Amino acid sequence: MSTMNISLPDSLKDYVDEQVGECGYGTSSEYVRELIRKDQDRKRLRAILLQGAQSGLAGPADADYFESLRARVRTARKCQAGQSSQPGWPSRT
Q1: Is residue 31 one of the residues assigned to a domain?
Q2: Is residue 19 packed enough to be buried (19+ CB in 10 Å), middle (13-18) or exposed (0-12)?
Q3: pLDDT value at position 19?
């Protein structure tokens, strides 16, 4: 792992120290790493959303569309309920 030193004004350092204490981070480095990860996630999500917005409509979002979504959720729930909690055991069908 590489090391990076950064300079912060006192007000920002105080804020980081406060967040470390209040949010359960072990060190200020953990807090900064988490901020960077969240920023990366935000940028990935933004890119995906923009790609989706530019792709156009896939079809009408009418009552039939929403009913098909509900059916998919019901099917997924049934599949999850049928799985055994024992690893390696066959699911109940």
Answers
A1: yes
A2: middle
A3: 97
